[in-house]
Amino acid sequence: MKKITIIGTGYVGLVSGAGLADFGNDVTCLDINLERIKILLEGKIPFFEPGLSELVERNVDAKRLHFSTDFSRSINDSEVIFIAVGTPMNSSGISDISAVKKVAIDIAQNISSSKVVAIKSTVPIGTCVELESLINSKLKKNVNVHVVSNPEFLREGAAVRDFLIPDRVVIGSSSKIPIDIMKEVYRPLFLNETPQIITNLPTAETIKYASNSFLAVKISFINEIANLCDEIGADVHVVARAMGLDGRISPKFLHPGPGFGGSCFPKDTEALINVGKQNNVDLKVVKAASDSNKIQIKKIIQKLDKHIKNYNNKKIGILGLAFKANTDDVRESKSIDIIKYLISNQAEIAAYDPAAIENMRNIFPNVNYKYTIDEVVKNASAILIMTDWNEFRGLDLQKAAKIMKEKIIVDARNLLSREDLFENNFIFEGVGRPFLKNYD
Ligand code: UGA
Q1: pLDDT band for position 394 (50/70/90)?
Q2: How much is the average pLDDT of 165-171?
Q3: Ligand 1, pocket-test mutation among 87, 206, 219, most atoms within 8 A of CB
Q4: Atom of ligand 1 at shortest range from CA of 329
Q5: Using CA positions, which residue lies closest to atom 5 of ligand 1?
Q6: Distance, CA 423 to ligand 1 centroid (Å)?
Q7: Pocket test residue of 95, 154, 263, 326 for ligand 1, highest count of atoms within 8 A of CB
Q8: I need a labelling partner for 171 at 20 to 30 A (CA). Which of 83, 201, 236, 286 fits?
Q9: Which residues line ligand 1 (CB under 6 A)?
C-alpha cells in the first residue's frame, strides 16, 4: 500500500484515483478547481462515467480515497504523486503542456522529501525527460525526484473496467527505485498476472501514442472500406466480421461511422505526426488516417443532401450529441460539424442525447434540445443517428413512420435494421451497407 496524491480530477485523474484506492492504496485527489472538489466532497461525480460513482463511494467509505485542495500537505504526505491534468491541443496541433509544467514546478517547490512523480497526462514524446530536469532544477530542498511515465488506456464510458482490468500496465523510468515503487502501487494487478511493460521514458510515451494512432488508423481504414462498399454494393459489416476473424487483425475498432472524435484520437494522431516532423520522420500512415477522418463527416452530410435539397425551415432531428455512447463528452464530436452545417443551411434542428445535452448547450445555446426520441422524430423531415447509444437501436420505426413528415433516416452508426427500415418504407442511408434485397 502506498500513499498517493493525484493532481487533476478529470476522467483520467478521478478514475485512476478511485481505482488506485480500490487496489488498497491511500489516495488523495487534488484539483485547483474548488467547485469540482466541493462536488466530490458532497459525494457527487462531476461528469458522467458508468460505474464511477460506486467505485468512488466504496473507497471513500473505506477511507482510502480523499479529496482536498491542500496541495502542499497532500503531496508531502505522499510517496507517489500522479499528474493527470489536461493537455489540450493548441491551434497549431501541438499538445499544450503548460498545466503539466506548472504542476511539476509547484511540486518541486513544495516537497521536503524524495518523491516519485508519475505522469498520467498524455504528453508529447520527450516531455518526461524534460519534466525530470525541470523539477530537479526547481527543487528547494536536497531531495530526489524520479519522473515515471505511466500512460493510461482508459476509454470514456468503459474507464472503470479498463482501469481495474487493464490489458497491460506500462511503466517507464530511467532507474530501478521508482519502478519498484510503482510495482507496489499496482501490486494487486501484478498478482493477477496483468502484463507489465517496464521500459524507459520515451518508449513508454511512444507506446501511448502508437496505440491510440494505430486504433485511429483502424477506424479510418474501415471507414474508407465502408465508403467503397457504398459504391460497389458490398456490406462492410460482413467484410469487417470476416476480417476480424483473422486473429492477426482482431474484430475490435472496425466499426465504421462518422469519423473518430473525443479528446484523444484527433489530438494524439496530430501530436504523433508533429513529433515525427520534428524528428524528420514522415508518419504517412498516421497522417492519412487523420486526413481521412477529417473528411469522413462530409460523406454523412452528402448522404443527407442526397435526399434533402432545401433545408430552409425543415425540421431535422439529431439523435446523439456525445462523441460516442456512454459518455456526456462532446469534445470533437462529429455532431458539432452536423449542427454547424444544418445551422448554415437554416434548418430547424431538434436534438436529443441521453447524457450530453448540457455539454452541447455550452457550444450551441440556441439549438432546440429535446428530452425524448419522440419529440425529435415528430414532424421531422429527416433523422440523423450520430452516436451509438443503445437506446437508439430500439427506435420504434413503425411509430416513426407515422409521425415523421418525410421518412428519411441517415444512420451514421449502422444501428438500425435495414430490413425493418425497408419494410416501413423509409428512405435510408447507412455507412457501407447499401440495401440490396437479393443479398439480405
Ligand atoms: C481512446 C482509447 O480507446 C483509450 O485506450 C485511450 O486511453 C483514450 O483514447 C485516451 O487516450 O485517453 P476514447 O477516446 O475514450 O478512448 O474512446 P474510443 O472508444 O477509443 O473511441 C474514440 C472514437 O472512435 C469515438 O468517436 C468512437 O465513436 C470512434 N470509433 C471507435 C469508431 O468510429 N469505430 C470503432 O470501431 C471504434
Answers
A1: very high
A2: 98
A3: 219
A4: 15
A5: 153
A6: 34
A7: 154
A8: 286
A9: 122, 152-156, 212, 215, 219, 253-255, 257, 260-262, 264-265, 323-324
pLDDT averaged over every residue in the chain: 96
Query: What does the CA dihedral 5, 7, 13, 16 come to, rounded to 10 degrees?
Result: -20
CA 144 to centroid of ligand 1, rounded, Å: 37
DSSP symbol at 95 = B
Q: How far is the CA of 373 from the centre of ligand 1 (A)?
A: 25
Query: Is the pLDDT at 376 greater than 90, yes or no?
Result: yes
CA separation (Å) from 380 to 10, 383, 393?
A: 37, 7, 18
Please determine, for residue 438, whether its predicted confidence score (pLDDT) is greater than 70: no
Overall average pLDDT of the 238-253 stretch? 97
pTM of the full structure: 0.95
Name the residue at shortest CA distance from atom 30 of ligand 1: 260
* Cα 159 to chain centroid, rounded: 9
- The C-alpha cell of 320 is what? 446523439
Question: Quick check: 440 pLDDT over 50?
Answer: no
pLDDT given at position 89: 82
Residue 375 burial (CB < 10 Å; 0-12/13-18/19+)?
middle
Query: What is the per-residue burial (b if ≥16 Cβ within 10 Å, else e) of 162-171?
Result: bbbebeebbb
Please tell me the distance between residue 78's alpha carbon and the centre of ligand 1 in angstroms.
32
Residue nearest atom 13 of ligand 1, based on CA coordinates = 155
Interior/surface letters 122-159, b for 16+ CB within 10 angstroms, e for the rest: bbbbebbbbbbebbeeeeeeeeebbbbbbbbbbebbeb
What is the atom index within ligand 1 of the atom nearest the CA of 219? 34
Q: Give percent of the chain with pLDDT exceeding 70.
A: 99
Average of per-residue pLDDT across 272-301: 97
Mean pLDDT of 173-178: 94
Q: How many Å lie between the centroid of ligand 1 and the Cα of residue 72? A: 35
Residue 199 exposed, middle or buried by CB count within 10 Å (0-12, 13-18, 19+): middle
> What residue has cell string 514522415?
282
For 42-59, what is the mean pLDDT? 96
Determine what percent of the chain falls in helix, strand and coil, rounding each to the nearest 5.
45, 15, 40
Give me 438's grid cell: 437479393
Task: Output the residue whose Cα is nearest ligand 1's atom 17.
Answer: 155
Residues tagged active-site: 264
- Alpha carbons 72 and 67: distance in angstroms, whole number: 14
Give the pLDDT mean for 57-70. Answer: 97
Give the pLDDT band of residue 436 (cuts 50, 70, 90): low
